[in-house]
Amino acid sequence: KEIAIFKKDPDVSIVATNVALVDKEGNEIGSWNEDIDTKTHEEIYRMLPYENCIANPTVMIRASLLKKYRYNAFQKSSEDWDMWLNMASDGEKFYKINEALVKYRIHSSSITAGFNRKSVYRKKNSIQVRYFLTRILKGRINKFDFRVLKNGIINYFKFILNALHPSILPVWTRLRSQSFSKVWVQFKALKKFCRSGINNRTSVYFFFPYYHIGGAEKVHAQIMEIVADKKPVCFITGISSDNGFYEDFKKSAILVDISLLTNYPVIGKRAKKIISKFIGRVNNAVTFSCNSKFYYDLVPYFAESVKCIDLIHAFVHKGEEGAEYWSLPFVQRLDRRVVITKKTIGDFKMLYREHQKGDALADRIMFISNFTEVPSIISKPQNKNLKILYVGRNGREKRIYLIGRIASEIAHENINAEFELVGDMGNIQSSAEMKYCKFRGLVSDKKEMQNIYRSSDILVLTSTREGFPMVIMEAMAYGLAVITTDVGGIKDHIINHENGMLISSTREEDIVHDFVEAIRELNSGKEKLKDISQKAHQYANENFSKEKFVKLYRDLLLTNSENNG
Fold it and tell me: Which residues have a Cβ under 8 Å from the Cβ of 423 and sit 6 or more positions away?
């Protein structure tokens, strides 16, 4: 594939690919963010002065360049980054194949692992300054090199701040991006709210990071609606990217925005004391959270009488930070933990054993399946072309670019199909590999979304990780045939070739091939498509019960109350 790029474009000097990160046993543990985020020459050129984004084992270089560029003996580490910087500074053209064709093992002594430790800023500074000095000695200095030096100085400043105290750097970063006056206004508003006496009216308190469009946010809105009659309070601990579920949150709870306070150590600590005191004055108070790091930091401040519950949608990749790891220091204090897939129960048991937390804590985990509204009758239109749908966001783990490749393969094979993507897809819409996809954008209107499901035949998901996505539940409810990667708890509900199709391949090239084969099979055998559609709807009707969801959550959240209504 790399050789083909060189033959196709004589101006290309360096070809690289994405990498899949693996642990010492060879298990895939995620991707390298800077690698995934830089897809074009322009993006690579912009990123290199800040971070290395080219995985050395994936690189192929024109032989003529190796006479001009060598590793810099002046560098103590990351000689490859230094060489990419020199090439970029001299105007050499990079090309990246946006497919993980190499597996890269992370071990304790590797630079990649080392760059996750405390000395990261000092190491970057050393590499950037040594690069700049070498350019001076060669008499070849330009604007690109001064950008490298500028970021080297910033990294040294970050190193000093981090050495003084680990909490200073996040504060400094926040101060650069936010007006402190807004932080102070939010803090004063929190104090005023907690003095208002409104806690005399409720015993249920939620802590959620966002109300933007997302499957998790939709579930959180549904949970709050169940106890809306108790007038709960919901603290918003993060900054949302849109207002997708804001009105749904607002109609079920009193919203208190503390999103600007959570990363300021002094003000954040004061906010925790104010909130814990406010909730502590309530008899039989219940707190409930999902995906909020602030909540886990707050838990030790609560009085013993306060009930603490969290919800985990899915574990993150190994090596990444997520709620399952944020919560570990405080897990003894969590009275209940809710999971939406049975696989996550097993994941927790393994995590607890790994961290010597004791098997008894696993007894506090309870399984509550999400729900979706299921129409009693579905009538699928006889589409001339297969209508293939994706609903969601453009997160790294979603791998939207694979849908673009699948659509391209389908088009080249002259299969009559239309791909429509619903959600905020960001910059990927302008990518050449997505030219066979139509973009609908964000859809917040419930009836419009229902009509989209009704008119579609197939839902595709190419994720690296999931719990059990709401979008699959909704698609099955409307009789779509779901084709998805076999990750998380999806196979708890999708029976391969019965009510959906599971793709078990892990290499991206194989995933694209298997999706294309599955779509071809459903296109050529319309009776099979109809059969899967009917069985998907039937399964949703029998298993995604709103009544059970409501009862379990109402019992969970109101068992401390004097009147659970």
Answer: 213, 390, 391, 392, 393, 394, 440, 441, 442, 443
